[in-house]
Design a protein that fits this description.
It is an enzyme of class 2 (transferase). By secondary structure, the chain is of the alpha+beta class. Helix content is about 50%, strand content about 15%. The protein has a four-stranded antiparallel sheet with strand order 4-5-1-6. A four-stranded antiparallel sheet has the order 7-10-8-9, covered by helices on one side. A two-stranded antiparallel ribbon has the order 2-3. The protein binds a DNA duplex (9 and 13 nucleotides) through β2, β3, β7, β9 and β10.
Length: about 375
DNA sequence: ATACATACC
DNA sequence: AACTGGTATGTAT
């Protein structure tokens, strides 16, 4: 959503003479910290270096798929009759009124976002990195998830958040939502003052810098909402660039998307978001997966599967859980993701049972050149 | 209705 | 991209 409001990036209709500008995934200039950098030059260099790689080809495949979805949407849009449009416009208007009636402005939510979290945590444990350009990664690619970082950093800021909201929501490793309504009322302080206080406490107690936003619900506290693919579709197929557009063209959204998707778009347009603290739900599945350099070596693949099955079994038993359907996840050397599942007559949790069924699923897919295997129990 | 596969967040 | 887990959706049976 922030991207939609700012409306700066031109994701479509890029001249063919500059192909690197259409390649959005590896390098996006939307991120902060790009001041004083020759953006186009960097983008071109990254493009030249990525071109032809397996990963790159898969990204192109996904971009083509996205274009197909957009074209498909355009086509369906063109087939709507005047009557259809009037009909769905009515539906949209009614739905907007209903959604508006649910607006709750009684709560104050605060969204915290740790700045450059992984790099910042790494720098804490290795101060010599301070001021140097760095990325967290390995296996010839840039990644982030790092268990050391997790343990170190997550614990670091959590006590601060808890002082303001015992039930704060961890949205991801580096993001959290706090309901600060009571804090504001009891101490008679403004929300922006609380935001500043939290930022200062986090820095004093962890050395990590974070940003904090405030709003009457979680959507507005974060100013978030719509992802890259959806944004592209909305922009190019519907010419929807702003929240206002989402509401004005709600009829088309209701006509072409499922009711729940249309509701989602209209809510974003209205700035409606979660105001309650959902109670922690019970876990419904447990999974694990590993990436490695792509191989066809079946002994290696079965060995990986055995390791994953053992870990999954241990994790399940740690929480006293069992699963009745077992899903095998594969990613081919060309980055295509596949899942294969089997539902069993009885729940299982032993590593032998898991491996037995996972092996059968894998066997049916071989030979194949794979770069990831995963297993999931539901 | 159930199982399975995929996309998206 | 990595890894986890949930939801939504579509398809086949």
């Amino acid at each position: 959503m922030s991207k939609m409001v700012k409306s700066e990036s031109s994701s479509s209709d890029v001249p063919l003479s500059k192909p690197w500008q259409s390649y959005q995934t590896v390098y996006t200039n939307a991120k902060a910290g790009m001041d004083g950098v020759e953006k186009e030059k960097v983008q071109r260099i990254v493009y030249e270096m990525s071109k032809g790689s397996k990963y790159f080809e898969n990204e192109e495949r996904k971009e083509a798929l996205m274009r197909q979805r957009t074209d498909n949407m355009r086509e369906r849009l063109g087939k709507l009759s005047i009557t259809d449009i009037a009909h769905y416009q009515k539906i949209a208007e009614r739905r907007i009124t209903e959604l508006e009636a649910t607006r709750d402005l009684s709560r104050i939510w605060l969204h915290v976002d740790m700045d450059a979290f992984y790099a910042a945590v790494e720098t804490l444990s290795n101060p010599s990195l301070k001021g140097k350009p760095m990325a967290v990664g390995g296996m010839s690619m840039i990644s982030t998830a790092n268990y050391e970082a997790r343990r170190y950093g997550v614990r670091a800021a959590m006590p601060v958040f808890q002082r303001y909201d015992l039930n704060f929501i961890s949205a991801s490793l580096d993001e959290a939502y706090l309901d600060i309504t009571e804090v504001c009322r009891e101490r008679d302080v403004r929300s922006d003052e609380v935001a500043e206080e939290i930022r200062r406490s986090v820095f004093e107690e962890t050395g990590l810098i974070c940003s904090a936003g405030v709003g009457p619900n979680r959507l507005l506290a974060k100013i978030g909402g719509i992802g890259k693919v959806t944004e592209h579709i909305l922009r190019t197929a519907f010419e929807i660039d702003t929240c206002k557009d989402l509401l004005e063209k709600g009829g088309f959204l209701c006509a072409l998307f499922s009711p729940s998707s249309a509701d989602f778009f209209l809510s974003v347009g209205l700035g409606l978001g979660g105001t309650d603290t959902p109670q922690a739900r019970l876990r419904k599945s447990m999974s694990n997966e590993r990436t490695f350099s792509a191989t066809e070596d079946e002994a290696f693949l079965y060995q990986k599967l055995a390791e994953l099955s053992h870990i999954l079994s241990t994790d399940l038993q740690k929480e006293g859980l069992r699963g009745r359907t077992l899903t095998l996840k594969l990613k081919t050397a060309s980055f295509e993701v596949q899942t294969r599942a089997v539902t069993l007559p009885k729940c299982i949790c032993s590593s032998e049972d898991i491996l037995l069924h996972a092996k059968k699923l894998l066997k049916a897919e071989l030979p194949a050149s794979l770069r990831l295997i995963g297993s999931k129990a539901v």
